Amino acid sequence: AQSVTQLGSHVSVSEGALVLLRCNYSSSVPPYLFWYVQYPNQGLQLLLKYTSAATLVKGINGFEAEFKKSETSFHLTKPSAHMSDAAEYFCAAEGWAGNMLTFGGGTRLMVKP
Amino acid sequence: GAGVSQSPRYKVAKRGQDVALRCDPISGHVSLFWYQQALGQGPEFLTYFQNEAQLDKSGLPSDRFFAERPEGSVSTLKIQRTQQEDSAVYLCASSLGGGVGEETQYFGPGTRLLVL
Hints:
Structural class of chain A: mainly beta
Helix content of chain A: under 10%
Largest sheet of chain B: 7 strands, mixed
Helix content of chain B: under 10%
Number of strands of chain A: 12
Oligomer: heterodimer
Order of helices and strands of chain B: EEEEEEEEEEE
Distance between the termini of chain A: 41 Å
Distance between the termini of chain B: 37 Å
């Protein structure tokens, strides 16, 4: 079965430090890939979306992700973490079986002052 | 405009009770999805509607789960004879069209169900 794997269920960084959240997918055909953010008691909010137009995708709030077919990865980065970035982040894929999303297990990002 | 709304936001049920969870998608959105998010896990697909047609219900975990969208807008997810393992956050999402990879899914805040 196709799957999305997020390495590290918890990531802690200092404010101002680089944020790197890892996502790998299992597929020989790159699907559509997404990163969503979830703040407490809120719904998922789309950060960015890969649709094969460009391998480096820029999203909201200074986040970006790079699609690497050879590594089946779609890691999320941000050069400088802010306290407001503390949230749960989900990587997701679409296209393996229709238009439903297949999610990774999520990574909780904690930002230390 | 308004986003996706869900009600109730929280529901406590005794084991064996039936529950109904409501989703109001963004007006005009053709596609509607239900996902189940267990504690500490990513959301998992339950079912998908295009207008009033339920095109995929492969993710429903048992025949106790039933979803409908009779007029192609509001949807209800019903769980009969709830069990403790049904405790989760139930997320609803809608998108404008139905094409794969073409449309962004917009999520509601979810209904947190606790079965005692």
